[in-house]
Specification:
This protein is of the alpha+beta class and 610 residues long. Among the domains are: 64 residues, Calcium-transporting ATPase, cytoplasmic transduction domain A; 98 residues, Calcium-transporting ATPase, cytoplasmic domain N. Helix content is 52%, strand content 19%. The protein is built from 19 helices and 22 strands. It has a seven-stranded mixed sheet with strand order 10-22-21-20-11-18-19, with helices on both faces. A hairpin with a 2-residue loop joins strand 1 and strand 2. Helix 4 runs parallel beside helix 19. The radius of gyration is 34 Å and the shape is elongated.
């Protein structure tokens, strides 16, 4: 069970000011009922002071730093104006309700920041360096490429490294979100941020902290909030112009309208000044753009936080916006729709199938070739080779302990897909056929994307046409283009992008040009690929295609939430401002409308964290 987040020092201080302010308001109401006016007025003033100290302090700091027209200044002016007009209860209400809204916003921002800052835990505080003089504890940033580190069970991997000795089970969920641990042995790469679950391993450093997996993830998360959408940029510019305009308009209502009425002989200045001043103060409160300025960036920040928690790294809210608008999804095949690992698909033989596989395994047992691994996964070990000769691009020749010579070679005639022939001396024993394993979630993920508004799914691959079409049919592709070079893929992305908004999904290594060219480039399973993180706009740290549907769904939900916040904020303000201009509502309604809208919009934004 997760621990409930505690309030920070500033939030506790704000909460205390609200509690003290509410206590004084309660006393003020009591004295009002007892008809002790002086005591009730003093209590309401004390409530306004207790709740407003932080607001007034910030307003003064803002004025001295050149930020005159922020919400703190507007609220301070409104509260002081209420005091001058003798509306002591309204002065208290302005400050208390504003503090409630600010506290609520602060807690919401804290939650979304924690969602992203939790990534900081990926980087451990120490690493154990193995030196000639013995073990030495250092900070991971001190490690150099080629250093040897010791990683014990339960420790977090400090930097990317290769196992030199030992074997272990590695929990990659902090980085990739994958729930199943990976078994790793000599020669396997360990990625920083993952957790060594079992044995002691000795490993060689292959990347510095900033270039390791965790370092790249943190760098990406830290810069994500700097890339703003058009909505955020508009709101920022809007507030800079809008707030001074509202302040000027309020001053005009408070002073120039009573002066004009006096000059034309309608009403003495001091008779009309209180009425128009209250309208002006109500306008200040109503027009304060808190909800817009807070909730729009907060909505995107919460969306980015949710994505980060789920091992989906989006480089900024502008890419989240674009991701919500894509209508064409283009996929690479190998490593994206398929696992990139070969498996045995068919056997054509003149001897027993299991016998054929055992003979092939004896020849391929010590090879690291993907075909050799696929044979080993399907065969039972029965024979042992005395000697093995491997010829690059041709195959393997092995002499077995019983005197037989087994050859595993490429077919002499062209075949669809990947195949090898197994010979005993010159006699053909059979042919083994292999295919890249389809990801089990591929078809469901493509269907989910289409339900979310993706109109067309296209596959681009360098594989041959027969294999490409078979995979395309299996996953539900609308178009399949095969035998393509990277430059051909880039050209096709350009052609498709001329007619629609394109999302390209690739493995992030040879697909970097296409990832960069697409409206949104999505790198799949790019844990160890620096090129992927550089070229892509969205990085799925695991190879799980369901994360792609999650990212699109989250981006659509985020944009809808932000749009709803903008509509709610503007609509309520226009409504209350219209009512206030006809004296149908007073400052209380203005305060409740402003704080209420702010709370509604912030609450709506924080829903994106779930």
């Amino acid at each position: 069970m997760k621990k409930k987040a505690k309030l920070n020092k500033g939030q506790r201080k704000r909460l205390l000011s609200i509690i003290v302010g509410v206590s004084f308001v309660a006393l003020g109401i009591l004295f009002t009922l007892l008809k002790i006016e002086v005591a009730s007025h003093l209590c309401f003033i004390a409530a306004g002071v207790a709740a407003g100290v932080m607001c007034v302090t910030r307003a003064v700091r803002g004025i001295f730093s050149g930020n005159i027209f922020d919400e703190n200044t507007l609220m301070t002016v409104a509260a002081i104006g209420a005091l001058i007009l003798g509306e002591y209860a309204e002065c208290a209400a302005v400050m208390i309700l504003y503090q409630v809204g600010e506290l609520f916003q602060s807690i919401a921002v804290g939650k979304s920041r924690r969602a992203i800052s939790e990534l900081g835990a990926l980087c451990p505080d120490y690493a154990v360096l193995d030196t000639d003089e013995g073990e030495k504890t250092v900070h991971p940033s001190e490690l150099e490429i080629g250093d040897i580190v010791l990683i014990r069970a339960g420790e977090r991997i400090p930097v990317d490294c290769l196992i030199l000795s030992g074997k272990t089970s590695v929990d990659t969920s902090p980085v990739t979100g994958e729930s199943v641990p990976r078994d790793c042995a000599v020669g396997d790469r360990l990625y920083s941020g993952c957790i060594n679950r079992s044995g002691l391993v000795r490993a060689e450093v292959v990347a510095k902290t900033q270039d390791s997996a965790a370092g790249r993830i943190l760098a990406l998360a830290e810069t994500a909030s700097e890339r703003k959408t058009k909505s955020e940029a508009f709101i920022t510019r809007f507030a800079r112009v809008y707030t001074p305009f509202v302040a000027f308009l309020a001053a005009t209502l408070a002073f120039l309208v009573p002066l004009f009425l006096m000059l034309i002989g309608k009403t003495p200045f001091m008779d009309s000044f209180p009425v128009w001043s209250e309208k002006a103060l109500s306008m200040l409160v109503i027009s304060c753009p808190c909800a817009l300025v807070i909730s729009v960036p907060l909505g995107y920040f919460c969306g980015l936080g949710n994505a980060s928690k789920n091992a989906v790294l989006i480089k900024g809210s502008t890419y989240m916006d674009t991701l919500s608008e894509v209508d064409t999804a283009v996929f690479d095949k190998t490593g994206t729709l398929t696992t990139g690992r070969l498996s045995l698909s068919d056997v054509d033989c003149v001897i027993d199938k299991n016998e054929l596989l055992s003979l092939a395994m004896a020849a391929e047992e010590h090879s690291s070739h993907p075909i050799a691994r696929a044979i080993a996964a399907a065969a039972e070990k029965k024979y042992k080779a005395k000697s093995v000769e491997e010829t690059s691009g041709v195959g393997v020749r092995a002499a077995l302990s019983d005197g037989r010579v087994i050859r595993v070679e490429r077919p002499r005639e062209k075949t669809d897909g990947t195949a090898v022939c197994v010979y005993e001396n010159e006699r053909l024993l059979g042919t083994l056929y292999f295919e890249d394993t389809l990801k089990k979630e591929a078809r469901g993920s493509i269907s989910e994307l289409k339900r979310m508004g993706i109109k067309k799914a296209v596959m681009l691959t360098g594989d041959n046409e027969a294999v490409a079409k078979r995979v395309g049919r299996a996953v539900g592709m609308d178009e399949v283009h095969a035998s393509l070079m990277p430059e051909d893929k880039f050209e096709m992305i350009e052609n498709i992008g001329a007619k629609s908004k394109v999302m390209y999904v690739g493995d992030g290594i040879n697909d970097s040009p296409s990832l960069a060219r697409a409206d949104v480039g999505v790198a799949m399973g790019a844990l160890g690929s620096g090129a992927a993180i550089e070229a892509a706009d969205v990085v799925l740290m695991s190879g799980d295609l369901t994360r792609l549907a999650f990212a699109v769904r989250l981006s659509k939900r985020t944009k809808a939430t932000v749009t709803a916040n903008i509509v709610i904020s503007i609509a309520v303000k226009i409504l209350v401002l219209t009512l206030a201009s006809f004296s149908l509502v007073g400052m209380w309604a203005a305060i409740l409308a402003d704080v209420g809208v702010c709370i509604v919009c912030v609450t709506n934004s924080t829903r994106l964290l779930r």
